[in-house]
Amino acid sequence: MVLLDVLIIGNGGREHAIAIGLNNSKSIDNIHVAPGNVGTYEIAVNHDIDISKSENITNLASKLNVDLVIIGPEMPLVNGIADELKKININCFGPISKWANLEGSKKYAKELMKSLNIPTAEYVLISEVSNNHEILEYFNPPWVIKRDVLAGGKGVKVTSDKIIAISSINDAIISDGYVLVENFLMGEEASILVMMDESDYVCLPASQDHKRLLDNDEGPNTGGMGAYAPAPIITPSVLQRVEEEIIKPMHHFLRNEDNPYRGCLYVGLMIDDDGAPNVVEFNVRFGDPETQVTIPLISSDLGELFYSVSSGKLSDYEIKFHKLSSATVVLASKNYPDSPTTGDLIYGYEVVIDEGEINAFIHYSGTAKNEQGLYISSGGRVLSATGVAPTLRDAVEASYQIINNITLSGSYFRSDIASRAFRR
Ligand code: AMP
Ligand code: GLY
Which of 123, 145, 154, 158 to mutate to test the pocket of ligand 1 (most atoms within 8 A of CB)? Predict the structure, then answer.
């Protein structure tokens, strides 16, 4: 078997999780990460480049002569990195810019869903500033106001206050030219990461993110404060509906285009009390922290999986999963998400749990090394502790054992990760 050299783009916990998965793959030889972080530094070669410029990535991929580039964040995809890698015949896991629009433009995603009859919230587009937006009479509060910009989930305002709704709508129109207002969907959220190319699609175990900063889903929206998988809200019958009503129509559309989708389609869902799914959002990449709980559940060779998708040969690959559960708890810096404090020393991160089927370890994100080689905080989400175990309770307990051992001045983590699963 020819071993593969791979380049991962990104610097978060998601990319650390992918690097760990590839490090355990028999198909992989060398792992490179750009720019990477202190976690990927331990198992791969980090390359400090500016990934906002596609040519920096293509130059590095050519110089390293890698077989495959895996794109973590959305920005390089929206910038067209998959299109550029295709021109130089290097495999890319991640879709071309045309499909990256599914995440880059909520208007495009909504219009496509409408044309394919995919269930999603009703919406209107508003482009005129007014002090009396009539749309607020059609939809019941709370109103969901979405700017059509890449804002990492922070371009969405959910409010029942009419004055705030009107000013959010007007502010968005002034800066972007138009805004989307959506019907509020009731229910429970879940995410399904779908591996997809023209030959097939495969759903990874469903997960549930915790987007709000504080326990009981209070406080501001964040990049994600923790996750667990498999999420029991996605029962076999709900999954069947998601596949029939959402994933199959998307796959049918994307596979039949000249340049088919090759990568991970993140399907963000709201499931109502009757088990009916609605799409909240599509992302064109792995989620963070959903990846940290999903990758450890894949038992087949991860390198082969990524390579198969990037070459349009997913149907030849047999995916297998461990019969385990996983949970991850994010440690955030003081004042995250507004103005995170950085530069503080982190203690107690050496502990791991390795007890047969119960394992727990750290995925790094906003952590750096200071001049003395000690770990310090360098971002809002500093690290996450991930537990994997035969039961979700054990996985959660293991992740909290690790996180409770860590000291970082003013830091914060949610104490209720996966509690929804236990309420069911
Ligand atoms: P988005 O960036 O579209 O995923 O929105 C960010 C978050 O806002 C979602 O994860 C939901 O929690 C919430 N949200 C977005 N759209 C809706 C909706 N139509 N109904 C209820 N909540 C929503
Ligand atoms: N955790 C949500 C996201 O990655 O978009």
Answer: 158
**Each residue's pLDDT tens digit, 384-406:** 999 999 999 999 999 999 999 99
Phi, psi values for residue 381, rounded to 5°: -95, 115
Of 3.40.50.970, 3.30.1490.20, 3.40.50.300, 3.30.420.40, which CATH number belongs to 122-182? 3.30.1490.20
pLDDT of residue 1: 67
Q: pLDDT tens across 310-330, in order?
A: 999 999 999 999 999 999 999
User: Do the strands 68-71 and 4-10 form a parallel or antiparallel pair, or are they unpaired?
Assistant: parallel
Query: Tell me: the pLDDT tens digits for 269-315?
Result: 999 999 999 999 999 999 999 999 999 999 999 999 999 999 999 99
For the entire predicted model, the pTM comes to 0.97
Q: Fold for domain 188-423?
A: D-amino Acid Aminotransferase; Chain A, domain 1 (3.30.470)
Query: Going along 253-397, which residue ranges are E strands?
Result: 263-271, 277-283, 325-332, 346-347, 353-355, 358-364, 367-369, 375-377, 381-389
DSSP state of 142: S
The number of the ligand 2 atom at minimal distance from the alpha carbon of 153 is 5
Number of Cβ atoms within 10 Å of the Cβ of 36: 25
